[in-house]
Structures are given as C-alpha cells and as structure tokens.
Amino acid sequence: MISAPSRGLASEVDAHLYPVLTVSSYPNYRHAAAIGQAWLDSQPGDVILIEFQASDYSGEFRTGPGEFAAHSVWLVIRNAVLNNRIVVEAGGNGNCNTEAQGNIDWWWNNWEGRNGPAGAIIVGAGTKDTNHARWTGTPVSVVGSAYGKHVDVQGWGTGVVTLGGNGDAWPSEGNPAFGDPDQKYTKTFGGTSAAAAQVAAACACLQSLSERILCRRLTPSEMREVLVENSQGLSSGAALTWYAPVGHDHLPPAFPDLYAAIEYLQGMPSNCAANFRRGDVNNDGILNIADAVTILGYLFGGQEAPPCMEAADVHDDGQVNIADGVDLLGYFFSGGEPPSAPFPDCGPLPPQSSNLGCFESICAQ
Length: 365
Known about the structure:
The protein has helices at about 30-40, 70-80, 100-105, 190-215, 220-230, 240, 260-265, 290-300, 310, 320-335; strands at about 45-50, 55, 65, 85-90, 120-125, 155, 160-165, 185, 275, 345-350. The protein has about 375 residues and is an alpha/beta fold. It folds into 2 domains: about 30-265, CATH 3.40.50.200; about 275-365, Type 1 dockerin domain, CATH 1.10.1330. The protein is elongated and about 75 Å long.
C-alpha cells in the first residue's frame, strides 16, 4: 500500500519493519524499543509509522493512540520528534475521545514528565465518500475511529485494498497465483491502521517534494502544518457523524491534498542555492559533454539526481527528460539552441520557472 517498485501511494520508498512482538520477546511487547530502533536507524525527516493502539485513560474501556501504552512509549516518540523524525501514529479503533478528562490528565501529567501529546501526527479514520464521516465498525459502540481535537488528520478507514492478509480480494481459488503469499491482496485492512498508512505515504511524498522544491526536508511541525492546511474539506454534515458526543468544535481535515500541498510548499522558506547556471548539470563549473551524460545517467542509469535539478532542465520547461540531454548535445555539436537563462553566466531562478530545486551550485560559492 505504501511502497512498490513503481506503484503504491509512495513508490520506491525504502521501507523497514520494526516488530513490537518478536520470538525472543514473546509474550512481552517491545513498543518503545521498536520505535527507538526505528528512530536510531533513520535520518532527520524520515517517516516513522506507528501501527498499534493502546487502552486509553478515560475509564470507559476505549483504545486510542499507541503512545498511551506506557510513559516510555510517549517518551521515545517525543524524542524522535524532537530529533526531527516525522512520526505518524494510528489514532486507534476503540472510539477513543482524545479530549476525555482522563486522557487529558495523563497527557499533561507533569509529575511523570509529560506536557501534552508526544508530537506524532495522530490519524483518524473516515469514510471513503465525500462526507468523510467518522469510520465505525461492528459493534458501533465499541469499534470506531479515535476523535477529538488531538486527532490531526484522517484517511480512509474503509474501501482499502492492499497487499497481504488472507488473500480475500485476490486471487481466487483456481487462479494460478492462488496460494502464493507474495501475490495476495486483502480488502479487510481498515480503520486507523489503513488511514495512518495512507497519511505516512503522503508524508513521504511531501518530503520528496520538499527536497526538490525547498532543497531541504520538512520538520515535524512543518509537516503537520502542510497536511492540515492542505486537506480536502469536510462536508457540512460531517460534524454530525465524526464526533460523539455532539458538541466538539474541532473537525480534523480529510485526506491530505498533495496537489494543494505542492503550491503551499512554494511559499515556505527555502534552502535552494540563490544562483546557478543552466546546463552545468554535474556542477563542476564547465559546460561539456559530461553534463549531458549526467542527465542520461540520472534518467536511465540509476544515478543520483543532479545537485541542481534546475540546471538539468536545459530549456526551463519544468521537467528533466531525455530532450534535455539531447538538446544539450545538439548545442555542443550541431549549433543547437543554447540553454535557457541563466546562461552563460550564473544567475537567479527566473520568475516564470517551476523551481525543480537546486541543493547545491558552484555559482553560490
């Protein structure tokens, strides 16, 4: 659902699994240790997805966000966030009211060292229609998405098909793939677990976009801001079904809108190099055949992206493709059109350019 070689919500993500229950730890769960290891193995800006829930403190036998499992879990999430990891946390499927007094008292227990939620992006589950009503299961009195103002965003809690599970979606008996565990699809993955996976994938996409547009990664607070400010709106009737009891004044946005987020990112502080030279793709200060080879190696040879993608966009059409390499060779050897501005000297990004990003440029030295 999150990643595949060329498909999934965030394709080509480098995904790692950190189980909370292992053969060596059974029957004891290792929630904090698993999150802590994910934090230590990751880099600032990486996304950590938490897919477990815990009993809340409302006194009503509800289950909510995983950080309720223990102070140690809350603490490791807090430290991961403080060290700029983007932590996405399933809100839980037990009708948890995050504003219940018992939950507030636990979160703001200064005696035990807590001063609020740990800082993860807490995800609720909504319906897949345009109402984005709160997802509930069976029985409704027991199974349903967490709610309240400490739920930041939502994703679909139903209508999700993904790899794994018992193969109830595909393949059917008689299909040659039947029985192959690597080809099973399930349609029973849902609730806040499915919703959190969708939001984590959105975070990975946004981080990739931020690297290109802003030449840096978003911080946890910025990621929450982008998600909340750029989400598909809720219908007027959603307030009647998203919250129970009626009367809460905070509605989490619907699923993040990545198209709106791209435009939003354009207005955020950038670390991109102020000046560059179009066509100097390998950033060595010299325009020659090596620059065209760098473009082709990036497109077809699995090489890393050039340090200044704008320099590789030879004719400033908002994309880097084979035409850029061919046109650069044409300029060198057959009198073709020169690269677009800034060229031949270093200069700033023209106002009409799409801003593909420029992490590093020799022009800035």
